[in-house]
Automatic annotation (TrEMBL):
A cellular-component GO term for this protein: cytosol
Pfam families per the UniProt record, alphabetical: Glyco_transf_9
Highest taxon above the source species: Bacteria
Protein's UniProt name: Glycosyltransferase family 9 protein
Gene Ontology terms: biological process: lipopolysaccharide core region biosynthetic process
Record carries keyword Transferase: yes
The keyword Signal is annotated on this UniProt entry: no
Origin species: Sandaracinomonas limnophila
Keywords for this protein: Glycosyltransferase, Transferase
A molecular function (GO) term: ADP-heptose-lipopolysaccharide heptosyltransferase activity
Record InterPro entries: Glyco_trans_9, LPS_LOS_Heptosyltrfase
Length: 282
């Protein structure tokens, strides 16, 4: 049995976009044992990804991580990160390294790519029909302004389930107070598996350029994507992804910079403040 190690030490969204490539690799090689190395903050991936036989998590101590991987005696290493850190790990393991761009692999929608358990969301007693608004993103500048959130929820017809982390809960709590009849605020209340299941059962999905965008696409959804300082033409969409992009065109400062911060470099944040939401409702 061949044993390979896949490495993705980036953000959650970057790990998710590697799944079609991982699925293609595993289906093309019989009796393949797949190990996956990622950040320790991504441990919830175990509950939704079925293609991986064993997970490994990057420890604060680089050499401790390499030492634990050395014992596995891998036949090959697939490097999705192609970063200095991942290259260093491969070098220390004395193994052949193959760098793969996950965006080269088309999406194959099937039940095995992302696992969803309907029973996992029974505690929330959600209605049979609802839409999802994933509030968060990796950077503050990737999220539309709070007034625009209010406008979106106010104009939306039907129930909106809000999902997100602790930071997103600040917005979710306020939106729930303003729109108690149409908002179900589940920010900071769901696991990754529950979020995936909620998205899978939703009629429509609204998201920013975030991990939830990639998760929605992998689940076969066609999400409405709110782009602020980034754009769908940046090249970070899975091949075959079908989305409805909403963005403010004509900004000379967009994309603002390669290495993002949580503050607009020009301090106006026009991409998130002046975004026209009309196309969402057309």
């Amino acid at each position: 049995m061949k044993k390979i190690l896949c490495i993705s030490l980036e953000n959650l969204g970057d790990v998710l976009v590697s799944l079609p490539a991982l699925s293609a690799i595993k289906s093309s090689i019989p009796n393949l044992e797949v190990h996956f190395l990622t950040k320790s903050s991504h441990q919830q991936l175990e509950s939704i990804v079925s293609q991986v036989d064993q997970w490994h998590y990057f420890k604060d101590n680089f050499f401790a991580t390499v030492s634990s991987l050395w014992k596995e005696k891998f036949d090959e290493i697939i490097d999705f990160s192609n970063s200095f850190q991942s290259k260093a790990i491969c070098f220390c393991l004395f193994q052949r390294r193959k760098a793969i761009n996950p965006f080269d692999f088309p999406i194959q929608i099937n039940d095995q790519l992302i696992k969803c358990e309907e029973e996992s969301i029974n505690e929330f007693s959600l209605p049979s029909k609802y839409s999802v608004f994933a509030l968060g993103a990796r950077r503050v500048v990737r999220v539309i302004s709070y007034p625009k959130m209010i406008e979106l929820v106010d104009r939306w017809e039907g129930i909106l389930v809000l999902i997100g982390d602790e930071w997103d809960k600040n917005f979710g709590d306020r939106l729930e107070i303003l729109f108690p009849e149409k908002v179900i605020n589940l920010c900071k209340k769901t696991t990754l598996e529950q979020s995936a299941t909620i998205i899978n059962k939703a009629e429509k999905v609204i998201t920013h350029n975030s991990a939830m965008l990639h998760l929605s696409v992998l689940l076969g959804k066609q999400p409405v994507v709110l782009y602020t300082n980034t754009a769908p033409t940046d090249g970070f969409l899975l091949k075959g992804a079908q989305i409805k992009p909403i963005e403010l065109l004509g900004l000379t400062c967009k994309p603002c910079q390669k290495i993002e911060t949580d503050v607009c470099p020009l301090f106006h944040f026009d991409c998130g403040m002046k975004l026209d939401l009309d196309p969402i409702f057309e």
